[in-house]
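Bumping with the actual sequence this time:
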Amino acid sequence: MSLSASLSAWLLVLLCAASGAYCLWRVRTSEREARGGAAGEALMGFGMAVMAVPSGIGPWAPAILPAVFCGAVLHALWLLREGVHHAHHLVGSLAMAYMALTMADGHGHGRGGGPPLVTGALLLYFAGYVLLGGARLVTAGGGTAPIAAGPPAKAAELTRACRLAMGMGMLAMLLSL
């Protein structure tokens, strides 16, 4: 792996870990209804950080990561009972389980991914998610000056930015399959 590829992989690890840490902080400070979603996002952020490590994460990864992300799929299914707005958690969890299973089979990170149809569908979903999330983030201010926005507005924008960063990270990892 070249130096620039390794550097970008470690930057992705840092971005995903920072997003996971912020989501974990949201679990502590959010109201009870929002904690489940924030916990799922924290798991995704930290899981993406672990999966993005460029040199591999050890011999235990093929056994542990699919189990963790299959557990995340079950958590996302549980969140769906609260409404379809949690469907993104399910898609993200399924994508992480898919990538973990693909990597457990000896594929991934440029060694040939899983079925092209599944990878392509996930790429389309996350590309659309990133484009839509970026458009929402740009228009989130509603024409007001950033200084005039209060703490709740800044927290909402930071949450959107966190979700956008994780979506871009997911897109980057799917592209590297």
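The tokens above came from a reply further down the thread. The chain has a mean pLDDT of 81.
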